[in-house]
Amino acid sequence: MKPETAIVEIFRKYKVYTERYLNDAADKTIILVNGSLATTASFAQTVRYLQPRFNVILYDQPYAGQSRPHNRHDQPIRKEDEAEILLELIEHFCADHVLSFSWGGAATLLALAQRPRRIEKAVINSFAARINEPMRDYLESGLNFLQACDRCNVGCLVNNTIGKHLPSLFKRFNYRHVSSLAEHEYMQLHFHIREVLTQDTQCYVACAEAIDIPLLFVNGEWDEYTTARDARLFADHVRRCQFRTIKNAGHFLDMEHKAAWHDTQQALLGFLQPVSRLAKPKHARLWTADTAAQTA
Length: 296
Fold this sequence. Notes:
The chain is α/β, with parallel strands linked by helices. It has a single domain, classed as 3-Layer(aba) Sandwich (Rossmann fold), CATH 3.40.50. The chain is 40% helix and 16% strand. α5 packs antiparallel against α6 (168-178). 44% of the residues are buried.
């Protein structure tokens, strides 16, 4: 099913490309928040199990993907700006749930700390409460390559670190995508990494303390960059939270193999829709690397 697409203007400052997958039988809407350098295409696997149960909203940040041609890129966008964009899109699409991936979790926590009235539950995938040594090494290596606009090494770095457990087809797509970005996108990520490395990540913990809706943190067992153990540090700060570890999976969870896709699906749907409300979808498309690459 093809999505409805639209450009949504935010604060008369940003124009955001959006995709809306409608489901006439769904009574809830979920909005998905990308990680760094990602676009709506990165959620191809996730949409396959969410769309049979929800209306699903995807969007590109103003500097990325199909939002990129509609915006000026004269200054970087802060995480606080991304949080405000998310809050506006939540209201625009009347979203009930939020699901974030990787560094999309930073803007998501900042937004949820403002207690948007519509949101009932949120899922935070592949995010942790601190910057551990493997993540710090990854980010510091990335700074030099990004500043030099070294496309080859940026692509290789992603595949050799957080993407190490991806199938080879996904790695090829990742490399093509990451190594062909516009220079301003590299500068945006460089700005973001410098923020992450110089600011106290306890700000995300502080945000979590202000959140009053149920949260689910999902991490891969093999993810050494945002570990399940580091995610569980949120337990002392979030009033209502749950944690799931996806066995034999790394940072990219449902993109890595069929079993991880299935287990991530079960974790998310079990949290967002309690068993008593689950109904078998009419059409459930299975995880396939070939199909995902064609979609992306």
